[in-house]
TrEMBL record:
Keywords: Coiled coil, DNA-binding, Transcription, Transcription regulation. SMART domains: FCD, HTH_GNTR. It holds the Pfam family GntR. Residues 11-78 form the HTH gntR-type domain. This is GntR family transcriptional regulator. The keyword Transcription regulation applies.
Length: 224
């Protein structure tokens, strides 16, 4: 049974509920394929069904919840074809972003990327999985932002919910966090050297390795 998570006033209730459900999906409290019920969620948060409905609608758009033909809501269940499709999109979009970042990043932005890598390594050494995932995501978000291409950023944001979901899966495996960090360091060095082609190559290799590991994790999950 979930512990009560009191709502706060600064954000609209539906956004608080949306974020809370999202965190429950990412931390495994809600399992893939679990059914969710508006009435139960509304009771849990001591609110009406209206903000719950809005939160669910937003999460369906993000892809983290799925609505079937009978309007039944369930948690997104990863599948191999979907992860391959998503990572094809990631590779295409982020390759463009890292190429532009290698050409356009300011010295201050390079320092921010390096700082993120240092904070990631500290989180790994302190064995903080959620923090590691957050810094991994931040590194990629910085590359998107520093590309200076607003439209590209909007396209990537449309995938962010499921991308983060797969990042949580991707950290599974012995020494996996260190392997991811090494990939990020290789990408960073290519950006710092102002070598767009090498930056693209390193990012593609890194993302393909992510995909390979996630496919392995999903295959193990399906065998259980």
């Amino acid at each position: 049974m979930l512990e009560c998570n009191p709502l706060q006033k600064p954000l609209p209730y539906y956004q608080q509920i949306q974020q809370s459900i999202k965190e429950s999906i990412f931390n495994g409290t809600y399992k893939p394929g679990d059914r969710l019920y508006e009435a139960q969620i509304a009771t849990f948060y001591n609110t009406s069904r209206s903000p719950v409905r809005e939160a669910i609608r937003a999460l369906v758009i993000e892809g983290l919840l799925v609505m079937d033909q009978k309007s039944q809501i369930s948690v997104y269940k990863p599948n191999l074809q979907d992860v391959r499709d998503i990572y094809e999109c990631r590779i295409s979009l982020e390759s463009t972003a890292v190429e532009l970042t290698a050409e356009r990043a300011t010295e201050e932005q390079l320092q921010e990327l390096e700082k993120t890598l240092e904070e990631t390594e500290q989180a790994i050494n302190e064995d903080k999985p959620e923090t590691i995932v957050a810094y991994n995501a931040h590194f990629h978000e910085q590359i998107i932002q520093y590309s200076g291409n607003t439209r590209l950023k909007m396209l990537v944001e449309g995938l962010n919910g499921l991308i983060h979901y797969y990042r949580v899966l991707n950290i599974q495996g012995e020494d996996r966090a260190y392997e991811i960090l090494k990939g990020h360091k290789d990408i960073y060095l290519a950006i710092k050297e102002r070598n767009p082609k090498r930056a693209v190559d390193r990012l593609r290799e890194h993302t393909q390795e992510d995909l390979k590991n996630i496919v392995h994790v999903i295959e193990q999950f399906e065998e259980r």
